[in-house]
Design a protein that fits this description.
Shape: globular
Number of strands: 7
Helix content: 40-55%
Largest sheet: 5 strands, antiparallel
Radius of gyration: 18 Å
Order of helices and strands: EHEEEEHHHHHEEHHHHHHH
Number of helices: 13
C-alpha cells in the first residue's frame, strides 16, 4: 500500500520520542503497532507499506492537515518557525492506550535506548507472535490479561528498573477496573488527565503523553527536561510552565511540543 502525504517523514517520527517500536533497518523501518508488524519505506511523496489495512492511515493521522497547523503558528516566534521547518515531517501517532501508558511509565527518567530495550523485552517475553521480517521475529505488546500473572521481579528482569512496581500496579489497577481505558475517551481533557493520574506510576508529564499520543488530545503538552530547557532558553519561562504553554501554544499545543522537542534536542 502506498500512502501519499507530503508532511510525513518516518525517520523524524521514529526519532520524535512518541513511540518505541519503530526499528530502523538499512532502507526501511519495521513498525510494530495495531497488532501488526509492517515494513515501512519512505517515498518522495509519502510512504509504502507491505500491508493494505486502512488502519495505518488513522495511525499516521493522515487525514489531518499539518500544513494548516504550521501555518497557524507561522510567525509566532523565530524558534518555533525553525522547529516546524526542521521537523515538518512529524505527525502525532494514534496509539493504543494501554501500550502508551506502559511505555511512558518506563520512559520516566530514562533514555530512548533503554526504553526501547525494555519495551522489546516485555513484548518478546509476554506478547503474541506477529510476523518474521528480515529474519527477525516480532511480537505484539502484551495485553493487561497477558501480564496478569507477571510479577514485579519479572518486570524488573525486562530492564525497567525501579519502574517495575509501577508497571505491576498499573496492570492490576486496569484489570481490577479502577479505570476503563475505553470509557474515559468521553471525558474532558482535564478529567481524562486526572483519571490517568489515578493509575500507579503516572504523574502529570506521563499523563500528558498518554492523552496526546493515545487519545488525540492536542492540548496535552508534556514537559520533560528538553522542553524545560527550550522554555527557559528561548521563552524565558523558568516556572509556571503549565500556565504559559496552555495560553501561548493553544490550540495544538501537543503538536507544537513535538516540533520543539525534536528541534530542541538537536
Amino acid at each position: 500500500m502506498i500512502i501519499k502525504c507530503n508532511n510525513l517523514n518516518i525517520k523524524q517520527i521514529a526519532d520524535s520520542g512518541q513511540t518505541f517500536r519503530w526499528y530502523e533497518r538499512k532502507d526501511h523501518y519495521v513498525v510494530v503497532a495495531n497488532h501488526r508488524a509492517v515494513s515501512m519505506t519512505q517515498l518522495s511523496d509519502g510512504i509504502e507499506l507491505d500491508d493494505e489495512n486502512s488502519i495505518w492511515k488513522h495511525y499516521l493521522d493522515i487525514d489531518r492537515d499539518y500544513n494548516a497547523i504550521m501555518t497557524h503558528y507561522k510567525g509566532k516566534d523565530d524558534f518555533l518557525d525553525a522547529a516546524m521547518d526542521y521537523g515538518s515531517g512529524i505527525r502525532i501517532l494514534n496509539q493504543d492506550p494501554f501500550e502508551t501508558i506502559m511505555t511512558f511509565i518506563i520512559s520516566a527518567n530514562n533514555n530512548i535506548k533503554r526504553i526501547t530495550s525494555s519495551v522489546l523485552a516485555l513484548s518478546n517475553n509476554f506478547g503474541t507472535y506477529l510476523k518474521t521480517i528480515d529474519g527477525v521475529d516480532y511480537y505484539d505488546f502484551p495485553t493487561p490479561e497477558q501480564l496478569r500473572e507477571v510479577s514485579v521481579e519479572s518486570f524488573r528482569n525486562c530492564g525497567v528498573g525501579y519502574r517495575d512496581k509501577y508497571l505491576y500496579g498499573c496492570v492490576q489497577d486496569i484489570l481490577n477496573k479502577k479505570i476503563d481505558l475505553e470509557a474515559i475517551k468521553s471525558l474532558s481533557d482535564i478529567e481524562l488527565r486526572q483519571a490517568l493520574m489515578r493509575l500507579k506510576g503516572i504523574g502529570e508529564k506521563v499523563a500528558n503523553c498518554v492523552i496526546l499520543f493515545a487519545y488525540a488530545r492536542y492540548e496535552g503538552f508534556p514537559v520533560d527536561t528538553w522542553i524545560k530547557k527550550v522554555l527557559s532558553e528561548h521563552y524565558g519561562i523558568e516556572k509556571d510552565h503549565k500556565i504559559f504553554v496552555e495560553s501561548y501554544f493553544k490550540p495544538y499545543g501537543g503538536i507544537a511540543q513535538q516540533y520543539l522537542f525534536f528541534y530542541g534536542r538537536r
